[in-house]
Specification:
258 residues, alpha/beta, 7-stranded parallel beta sheet, 7 helices, Sc_DH/Rdtase_CS, Short-chain dehydrogenase/reductase SDR, SDR_fam
Length: 258
């Protein structure tokens, strides 16, 4: 039994579809029901409307899962937003909104999921929480100050939770993607921040590939593959880690590209 927040987004859809393929029943939680999980069997996914910033909304969603399923094996916190501004041009409301979705949303879903995950452990399974950080939580892209700060907070929260709840049989990890081909990436490229000053994915495709050692950027399926491993028993000894998935981008000395 799995809950994927941001479950109708580009990465969230791919994660849900992969987990269903592996035999899981998935609750795809999002603000909108638009989009689909692709060729997934009917009845093995269920849409749940969820605003991760509202505590009552999160509590109700987890209560629904508890009533219908009685436990939760996998929680994937894929909901997130990005603000393309320096702090000088970021309003307090924008800053608070970024942290509300990326950090507080992760906190709330984990908080209310823990009792259900303890039930999963009592049934003899190891429960797995997979948060979403970013390589921007380690190094920074220009013009993404609030986003970078929020992802650094998710990294710290992930480690703390792994320490607190590992003794209960609940593993906690974070995936830290780099450039992944999603609508958010396309919006970033078209934006006024560090995304190329109004360029498009098409015009910037070669430039983006060339800054990566593997000469490509990732796909939602690449992220879903890592989620699937972290969620399963093969990753039973993996907890408290920040798994960077960026095609080697953050491994290189940037000046060597000049």
């Amino acid at each position: 039994m799995a809950l994927v927040t941001g479950g109708r987004g580009g990465i969230g859809r791919a994660i849900g579809a992969r987990l269903v393929k592996e035999g899981a029943t998935v609750y795809a939680a999002d603000l909108s029901q638009s989009g689909s999980l692709g060729d997934t069997p009917e009845g093995e996914t269920r849409y749940v409307r969820l605003d991760v910033t509202l505590e009552s909304n999160v509590a109700d969603a987890l209560d629904l899962i508890d009533r219908e399923s009685g436990k939760l094996d996998i929680l994937v916190n894929a909901a997130g937003i990005e603000i393309e501004k320096t702090i000088e041009h970021t309003s307090l409301s924008e800053w608070n909104r970024c942290f509300a979705v990326n950090v507080t949303g992760t906190f709330l879903t984990c908080k209310y999921a823990l009792p259900l995950m303890r039930k999963a452990v009592s049934h003899g399974t190891t429960a797995s929480i997979i948060n979403f950080g970013s390589y921007d939580g380690f190094i920074a892209d220009p013009g993404l100050a609030a986003y970078c700060a929020s992802k650094g907070a998710v990294h710290a929260l992930t480690r703390a939770m792994a320490c607190d709840h590992g003794p209960e049989g609940i593993r906690v990890n974070a995936i830290c993607p780099g450039y992944i081909d999603t609508p958010m990436l396309q919006a970033f490229f078209a934006g006024a921040g560090s995304g190329g000053g109004g360029g498009t994915v098409e015009t910037l495709r070669d430039a983006v590939r060339n800054v990566h050692p593997i000469r490509n950027y990732g796909t939602p399926a690449d992220v879903a593959n890592l989620v699937n491993w972290l969620a399963g028993d093969e990753a039973r000894y993996a907890s408290g880690q920040l798994w960077i998935l960026d095609g080697g981008l953050s491994a290189q000395v940037q000046q060597m590209r000049l």
